[in-house]
Amino acid sequence: MRIEIINGPNLNLLGKREPGVYGSRSFDDYLTELRAAYPDVAIGYFQSNCEGALIDRIHEVGFECDGIVLNAGAYTHTSVALHDALRAVPAPAVEVHISNVHTREEFRHNSLISAACKGVICGFGLDSYRLAVEALLKEKREEEKR
Ligand code: DQA
Prior knowledge:
This protein is of the alpha/beta class. It is about 35% helix and about 20% strand. The longest helix has 19 residues. 1,3,4-trihydroxy-5-OXO-cyclohexanecarboxylic acid binds next to loops.
């Protein structure tokens, strides 16, 4: 089982960026714990502040991995191109947000990528990523039963 976590713009600053909203833990630190919790799953990781680089990564991994966990950051609310990239590849994607975007500014309430994803998890802090991994594992198990 191979899952790719893709983080978009400004998420390289997790731990330093608005800790009241996103917490004070770095993603690298969290990722070490997440990988240790799933020793049988190869969890890849990619982060970029550039829309095109995120699209390229989806193209690269989307034909090979079993699922994508995507926190597209602000591109969530703007990017038709990311929506199209997710639709272009067979791997199922879960849209993730650390904060509950629906309790925040109105411009965060709309996602252009949700419709290209299997589901959406938001508002559980960094644990949103683990919940997304769990959802993809369950999907995979159910697919194998079919
Ligand atoms: C975010 C929410 C987005 O609205 C914001 O632009 C981010 C992070 C989250 O994880 O809560 O960069 O995706």
